[in-house]
């Protein structure tokens, strides 16, 4: 290898490292674009399938159909969730006077019983003084917590315009990338020599198989979650069993790595606040059971679908979570598959290349 070629490789490596560090530091700024690219890659098989079925030369119509379907499903799920939450809060607000009367009656009875108890024991006034001190401390604590909650709510409300803007950027970027994805892929491959480009195409083909296997595994797991949720909700909340099971199924199939808990836990908390404590506890217990079952079964199902044993799948998910959080938990197996595919394609086979050049 010549000195000029060595310097070129060193500069390229340094440049890649600098770009990697920059993206890692400002990852939140690149997140909408990266998610849009990932979403476009995930839905690319559906676009190609529609393009074949519609016999369309251009990608515009298939992309519009896939994009519109994605928007409709996400919008409908969000609408159903928000209306369910709003109706629950409305029902709770209507019953507030009744709850207030019940709490007041309970408090009055408790005070009467406590005064009777204090009168019967010696040094009862000291107990009352200590309780007054503790009650003052409790009131201060509750005031601080309430202030923090109000501040957090205010910050969250202020961030809504920013969230809407980021969501809009994500959707527009997703549509445009999906529209020009084949061109972008071709431009990317043309950046490399023919030999390297062929190896990268091999890695890309392997990753496409992995993506399909991943979504197959997610679909199989989500079907199991749907059946368990629907059967359980028939006993917990029969009226909302079907619609809530469908919402939970849609949320579960999306790789948020929170799954059913994202719906069941807030629903359980709202039910408990409204006054239906049994339903609230049952919903939270169901969320915990589904979370444990899914995380226990997922490594095996996911490993079989993407061509990994259960142990490497668990390890890549664990180390991905340790270093990169929830996104690393999802992307860990894909990174491992990409590295293994690159090795199988000979992309890292520098020693063999040197030997061939000498020969």
Descriptive key words:
single chain, 12 helices, transmembrane helix, mainly alpha, 0% strand, elongated, 359 residues, membrane
Structural commentary:
Helix 2 (27-54) packs across helix 3 (60-94), helix 7 (194-236) packs antiparallel against helix 11 (310-345) and helix 10 runs parallel beside helix 11 (310-345). The mean pLDDT is 76. The chain is built from twelve helices and no strands. The radius of gyration is 28 Å and the shape is elongated. It has 359 residues and is mostly helical. The protein has two domains: 26-122 and 171-190, no CATH class; 192-359, no CATH class. This is Sporulation integral membrane protein YtvI. It is found in: Membrane. It comes from Robertmurraya siralis. Keywords: Membrane, Transmembrane, Transmembrane helix.
Question: What is the topology?
Answer:
Blueprint: H1 3-25, H2 27-54, H3 60-94, H4 96-119, H5 124-179, H6 181-190, H7 194-236, H8 241-253, H9 261-274, H10 277-306, H11 310-345, H12 350-358
Helix pairs in contact: 2-3, 2-5, 3-5, 3-9, 7-8, 7-10, 7-11, 9-10, 10-11
């Amino acid at each position: 290898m010549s000195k000029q070629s060595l310097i070129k490789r060193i500069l390229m490596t340094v440049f890649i490292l600098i770009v990697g560090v920059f993206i890692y530091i400002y990852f939140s700024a690149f997140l909408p674009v990266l998610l849009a690219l990932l979403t476009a890659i995930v839905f690319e098989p559906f676009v190609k399938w529609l393009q074949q079925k519609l016999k369309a030369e251009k990608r515009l119509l298939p992309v519009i159909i896939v994009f519109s379907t994605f928007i409709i499903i996400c919008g409908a799920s969000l609408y159903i969730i928000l209306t369910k939450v709003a109706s629950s809060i409305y029902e709770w607000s209507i019953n507030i006077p009744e709850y207030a009367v019940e709490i007041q009656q309970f408090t009055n009875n408790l005070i009467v019983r406590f005064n009777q108890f204090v009168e019967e024991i010696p040094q009862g006034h000291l107990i009352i003084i200590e309780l007054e001190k503790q009650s003052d401390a409790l009131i201060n604590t509750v005031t601080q917590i309430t202030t923090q909650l109000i501040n957090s709510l205010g910050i969250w409300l202020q961030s809504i315009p920013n969230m809407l803007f980021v969501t809009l950027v994500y959707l527009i970027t997703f549509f445009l990338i999906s529209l020009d994805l084949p061109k972008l892929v071709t431009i990317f491959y043309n950046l490399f020599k023919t030999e390297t480009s062929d190896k990268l195409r091999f890695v890309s083909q392997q990753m496409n198989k992995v993506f399909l296997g991943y979504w197959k595994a997610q679909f199989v797991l989500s079907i199991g979650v749907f059946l368990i949720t629907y059967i359980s909700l028939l006993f917990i909340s029969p009226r909302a069993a079907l619609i809530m099971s469908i919402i939970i199924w849609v949320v579960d199939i999306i790789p948020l790595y929170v799954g059913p808990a994202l719906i069941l836990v807030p629903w359980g908390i709202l039910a408990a606040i409204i006054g239906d404590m049994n339903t609230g506890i049952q919903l939270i217990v169901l969320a915990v059971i589904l979370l444990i079952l899914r995380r226990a079964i997922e490594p095996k199902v996911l490993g079989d679908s993407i061509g990994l044993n259960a142990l490497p799948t668990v390890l890549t998910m664990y180390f991905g979570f340790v270093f990169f959080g929830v996104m690393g938990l999802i992307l860990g197996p894909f990174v491992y598959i990409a590295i293994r595919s690159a090795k199988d394609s000979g992309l890292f086979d520098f020693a063999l290349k040197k030997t061939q050049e000498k020969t």
